[in-house]
Amino acid sequence: MSDTALIRLSGITKIYGRGQAAFQALKGIDLAIDAGDFVAIMGPSGSGKSTVMNILGCLDTPTSGAYEFEGVHVEQLTRNQRALLRRNYLGFVFQGFNLLSRTTALENVELPLIYRGAAAAARHAAARAALAQVGLEGWEHHTPAELSGGQQQRVAIARAIVTQPTVLLADEPTGNLDTHTSQEIMSLIGSLNRDHGITVLMVTHEPDMAEYAKRIIHFIDGSVDSDRRHEDAA
Amino acid sequence: MLWNTLLLALRAIRRNLMRSFLTILGIVIGVAAVITMVTLGNGATRSVSDQISSMGSNLLIVIPGQRFGPGSEGAPKFKNADVEAIRNQISAIERVAPVVSKTATAVYQANNWSTVVTGSNDDYFQAGNWELADGRTFSESEERAGKAVCVIGETVRDKLFGRQNPVGGEIRIKQFACEVIGLLKPKGQSAMGSDQDDTVVMPLRTVQRRLSGSQDVNRLTVSVKAQTSIDAVKKQLTLLMRERRKIGENEDNDFQVMDTRQIAETLTSTTRILTMLLGAVAAVSLLVGGIGIMNIMLVSVTERTREIGIRLAIGALEREVLLQFLIEAVVLSSLGGLIGIALATGASIGLAGMMGVTYLFDPTINLLSFLFSAAIGVVFGYFPARRAAGLNPIDALRHE
Predict the structure, then answer these.
(1) Angle, CA of B114, B116 and B121, to the nearest 5°
(2) Architecture of domain A37-59+86-229
(3) Do A59 and B392 touch (CB under 8 A)?
């Protein structure tokens, strides 16, 4: 763990519910992630892997502990500041794709750029380029309902990278896909990390998918169980 | 940012065309109903007052009782002698026409037609602006003798004689035969919506003797000479009638002298109440439309909660999301309001033409129902969205 870590979690806890029904999902997580890394977070259901992912993605707030992103204390930011952090530095890929229905691939990919206030021409160009990058040239005007699961996830990846984020967060990105498509998606994510220097944080419960990562962290019962470098990863 | 948000809102509307259409529909129907009803009502009110004032400003109508219409039955009617007294004692009066009306069936050969038989004198035609199409009116001797002669309106001619010339023909009314001596030029609908041409006019005595069986006169129509003050004549007339009806100094009049302006006011107050009633019924439909919008908005909130989660996750600020939903709601409901106004304008013009009332554009009711519809859309489109946008992005995303 170096001092130049991009992301640093110290003593992060998360408690759901109150009183008798309270459930401690995270029990004091300390974690540092360097820029350019490709981290897979693994663990059984209820181990807290998704919770830590949501906190890392500023989608959820920890109950206690400190979260530094490029030296900024995220836990002290307001709702709006966290939204701006997501807008400018983070890209998300979800298990369920989370595309806007009845909206074309191109418009879905353009969405983050609209919130960034990009001009129409620049927006179209960037969205087309992102779609081309994920291999969806020619599918710009199809809606999610007209695309396969793998294609929808590609659109979601294109939407995540169109803003050229520092970190790509992927929560079970292959959870809804068959093996072959999963491997295609994983090599796409791997190439984004390798060729474009995007830091990737990925939650998965499939060891095969974790093989693509450089570093694998295992969670059990809300704590880090193991944290190892994957030597074979490219 | 505003432009971008507008863009997002328009995209969202286009994306959910069916839902947008249904949302709008309630507003369109509600707005159109309210505006059409009120516009037609206003038009009817205007038509009534226009027709009354077209009767001329020199006309006075004297009726028994304190009120126009029901409730005046108790007061004694006028007598034939009143007509003579008014004519002799008030110099500024040009004409006095007594009026007795009875409904009766008129028969000519195989045709019969139920109509209103009016008994009056020759002044009736001048005071009422009637013109003859053919024939003549009663002579003084016919009036005095109560001869069975009549002047008929266009509708009666049409029903009984078809296209034949009625003058010289003989129609039967109740048990007596009556010679048609004149045909009136058509006047069309009256202020109350009845057919003025559906009439048979006979000498007063004839009707009193053969139809009503009494010496009563229901109404007096009085026209005032030009260049005289109508208010002064009204006062003289009132005094004279009080004296003739033996009303004590501290007693109220048991009759009323009205000029055309007052008649117009009385009649239009009726149509105005009807307008308000119709408007209230239509307002219920606007309210029902509003409830429809509320339903659609609430049903779609599940999908939209996830959408809001997605937008928040990719970096939308809470206020940007809210502004988008606000604009969406405003655009939708304003569009609904505008379509409703357009529809109402078309319907009002069409119906006004069919019903023969004046078309009057009423900016107040247009603006009011437009604002109301916009408010409904905004309230029910915006508040569910506000609840969703206040969620943690991850909770909004997980919402099913």
Answers:
(1) 145
(2) 3-Layer(aba) Sandwich (3.40)
(3) yes
